[in-house]
Specification:
103 residues; alpha+beta; four-stranded antiparallel β-sheet
């Protein structure tokens, strides 16, 4: 019974964590794939250009305090900062109006 409750708790926590994710991009050997969600128009092309040297990494946009924040995993600090700077130029209010958007 304890195992069942623990499993249910983990499932609820995972669903809540994922609900805050607006989109996820996977980078492998410089190729960018949209795993989940809808990134702003043109941002994927910018990621392809900036992260063309990346072997493996993940770029996620998550909702924190009502704002979209970019989270980069597996990327060097310089590349991650360039992506964050580029992402900040996109108007996420336009993204809010899209069907299925949670921002």
């Amino acid at each position: 019974m304890v195992l069942g409750l623990l499993s249910a708790l983990v499932l609820v926590m995972w669903a809540a964590w994922r609900a805050n994710e607006l989109f996820r991009l996977q980078i492998a050997r410089g190729k960018v794939a949209i795993v989940r969600g809808r990134p702003p128009g043109g941002f994927v092309d910018d990621v392809r250009t900036i992260a063309s040297h990346v072997e493996r990494g993940t770029v996620r946009a998550v909702k924190r305090s009502g704002r979209a924040t970019l989270v980069c995993e597996g990327l060097d600090e310089r590349t991650a900062q360039r992506l964050v700077n580029t992402f900040s130029t996109y108007v996420m209010s336009a993204h809010r109006g899209r069907a299925g958007s949670r921002l």
